[in-house]
Design a protein that fits this description.
The protein is of the alpha+beta class. It has 2 domains: 2-189 and 355-364; 197-298, no CATH class. The chain has helices spanning 34-49, 52-58, 62-65, 166-169, 177-187, 222-232, 235-245, 281-293, 316-326, 339-347; strands at 2-10, 13-19, 23-28, 89-95, 98-105, 119-127, 136-141, 144-149, 152-155, 190-192, 207-208, 250-255, 260-266, 274-275, 301-305, 331-335, 351-358, 361-364. The strands form 3 sheets. The chain has an 8-stranded antiparallel sheet with strand order 2-1-4-5-6-7-8-9, with helices on one face. The longest helix is centred in the N-terminal third of the chain and has 16 residues, at 34-49. The chain is globular and about 70 Å long. The two termini are 28 Å apart. 44% of the residues are buried.
Length: 380
Amino acid sequence: MINVLAVENYRSLRHLVVPLSGITVVTGANGSGKSSLYRALRLLAECARGGAVAALAAEGGLPSTLWAGPEHPGRGPVQGTVRDGPVGLRLGFAADDFGYAVDLGPPPPTRSAFALDPQIKVEAVWAGPFLRPAALLAERNGPRIKVRDGRGWAVLDHRPAPFDSMIGELADPRHAPELLELRERIRSWRFYDHLRTDAGAPARGSHIATRTPVLGHDGADLAAALQTIIEIGDHTTLETVIDKAFPGSRLKVVADGPARLAVELRQPGLLRSLGAAELSDGTLRYLLWAAALLTPRPPELFVCNEPETSLHPELIGPLAELIAAASAHTQVVVVSHSAPLVAALEEVGAGTVELRKEGGRTIVEGEGPLDGPPWYWPKR
């Protein structure tokens, strides 16, 4: 389980170190930095997929994403973007057994057409709750990578490109088995924030009848994902969460032509089942969250952004219970500005991280300078 998430110099996240639990709900007012924290987690996941640099370039490059305030808030006049130290965006996390951190900085002046691409300056992988020299397992400084070899170090011949992460590049278990394990674990992280429920949403149509243990990012394969849970997943919990949300209703996945499946919901008092195209946005969205959270192939980390969108207030409690059921198999982070959902999640044992702005930077409400988890960044 991931215990700590750390971000430095990403948008309003000047320096943020937050604790994570089995269920963590990140909340706060509009503009407090919730979306930035969500994006930072996605950027960390992209490091293992080789897409972090491209993701930053898509946001306008490093200059558009770096903290725009003074380097030392509260020390004399505002310095703007003048920096004393190295310019960099840092991301990291620590789990029960492994930790990882990456430092991305601007490239040297170049005539390349890819001038928006930042460079990976430093990476580190360590054992235990925080970085310390004795716990370091692998370190990348510029193109040079060294890995722990018994009591000493082995410098690898491989020199990754400035835009490639070492955990995405080094897949040889003979050299760095910890990097390979860490890469696969991060690649299992799952994010959902664009589950469409509008009239033209893909989830309102049928889908090819093929086993689907992981719901797609747009929910197009909802019928196949639900049928997969029914056949090889926790169908009892699925029935329970549907009944709590829609008392007396029964979910059905039916054939819709050759080798295609469609969703239907039989509700009390109606003479026929309703197809996905007839369901309200809130009902469809709840079914999408059920398919995503009750996956037969749970990830190490499940992150959902504003799952309360379009839901009727009566569905907030069942949604919290659905998230709690999923947390038995996966760590869950929920980003939400819904006070009822935050309260409902706290009732099922969630830890709350409330963000607010102070002087343009995001801080954790009620947390003093020395209250956060211990964290140390690798040095350039």
